[in-house]
Specification:
Length: about 400
């Protein structure tokens, strides 16, 4: 077991900067790492040259290597007063590289913040917040999360999509090597449902029936917490039409759906801000290019003819994490040999799916697999034109 301390920084009880010894609550924050680096030699605490452990039997060596602290370093933070007395300490785990969810070794009895103001974190009767520190095993950085006391998990937006077309899938494992590092992943689980409208045309507005024959698409995103590099980041999926399994035909650009993190005051990365259905022209992004100047609001699809429905439709706290979902539904254009805006995606068409992530003014894309042949219902609204070849997408 080793403890390595890598840095010391001052903690000020008042406005920075001031003399470190001029305030009673001033002090230091010591950052260390603790863990088992190897199970063969004794480091002798650095007082002499390492020696082979003389008492390591096969059983003891196996036990050492199976210890959860072996090759999995924890970040240990210690708060010291100006006089050197320990105020508090806490230990947090590195993220397990095989996990897809964030984790911490938080436990009771630990004060959770480096701020002198938060000295009652997780203690007393008035402040029972919990602050978590996550250090990522791939070296991409750390994340600080503060959870408020008496906040239960949301009960809405927990129903998965029912679409048979799995466009993209979230990775089940990560490594510390490219291209499987967490910061190189833009993918989350998404699915597409294609269905006709089982009502008469009189229930649809003239604006919709002039544009669509009732064929509706629903895209669902399985939300997961992620770090986009800035507040208000987004992650989602883009669909690009393929004339065959391996031939892309991007004349009409891409249809994308992204979920964005909230930018409200005090919002965190787990707070959902909005969903946006987009039409990205081919001149703006030409797949399979890995980056483009695309922001959801700049290319958002709007208009009554689409009858776009979002869920959730407003800022929703705490759902940008595993187990919650965001979706969008819209009416697609009538079958045609060409289209003036978005194309029509239908049964037996091929579509290329691209994972999307971004923040600020840039989006990044990755193609997880070859084109997918779509499946779905093959009926339209009662009173619409007969199908014929209406479910084939021509460009």
């Amino acid at each position: 077991m080793k403890i390595m301390c890598k840095g010391v920084r001052p903690v000020y009880a008042a406005t920075y900067p001031q003399d470190i010894d001029s305030g009673a609550d001033n002090g230091w924050l010591l950052t260390c790492y603790t863990g088992i680096s190897q199970c063969v030699t004794n480091s002798n605490n650095g007082t002499s040259a390492p020696t082979v452990l003389g008492n390591v039997s096969a059983t003891e060596s196996t036990a050492c290597m199976n210890d959860p602290r072996y090759m999995t370093w924890r970040a240990m933070h210690m708060r010291l007063t100006i006089a050197g007395a320990q105020s508090w300490y806490r230990v947090d785990s590195y993220w397990n590289s095989s996990c897809t969810k964030f984790s911490s070794s938080w436990g009771p009895g630990l004060e959770m913040s480096a701020s002198w103001i938060s000295g009652t974190d997780n203690n007393g009767a008035t402040n029972k917040g919990k602050t978590f520190v996550f250090a990522y095993g791939d070296g991409s950085g750390i994340q600080l999360n503060h959870l408020a006391f008496a906040v239960g998990p949301p009960t809405s937006n927990s129903s998965a999509g029912t679409g048979p077309n799995a466009l993209t899938a979230a990775p089940t494992t990560y490594t510390n090597s490219s291209p499987n590092m967490v910061n190189e992943n833009y993918c989350i689980g998404t699915d597409l449902l294609l269905a006709g409208t089982s009502t008469t045309t009189t229930t649809l507005s003239e604006t919709i029936t002039n544009y669509s024959d009732g064929y509706r698409a629903t895209l669902t995103i399985a939300l997961e917490t992620f770090l986009a590099g800035a507040a208000g980041g987004w992650r989602g999926v883009c669909m690009v039409y393929y004339s065959s399994q391996y031939v892309q035909a991007n004349t009409n650009g891409s249809v994308c759906f992204a979920a964005s993190q909230s930018t409200s005051s005090g919002a965190g990365p787990q707070d959902f801000g909005s969903g946006t259905l987009m039409h990205v022209p081919s001149a703006t992004w030409q797949p399979p290019s890995m980056t483009a100047s695309v922001t959801p609001t700049a290319v958002a699809l709007t208009g009554g003819k689409y009858d776009i429905t979002y869920a959730p439709s407003a800022v929703t706290k705490y759902i940008f994490t595993s187990g919650y979902y965001a979706s969008v539904a819209w009416y697609q254009p009538k079958y045609g040999s060409s289209y003036t805006d978005i194309a029509r995606f239908g049964k037996d068409d091929y579509v290329g799916s691209f994972c999307m992530q971004g923040s600020g003014s840039s989006s990044y894309f990755s193609a997880p697999s070859a084109a997918l042949k779509l499946s779905g219902a093959a009926y339209l609204a009662v009173g619409m034109l007969s199908l014929g070849t209406a479910l084939s997408l021509a460009m």
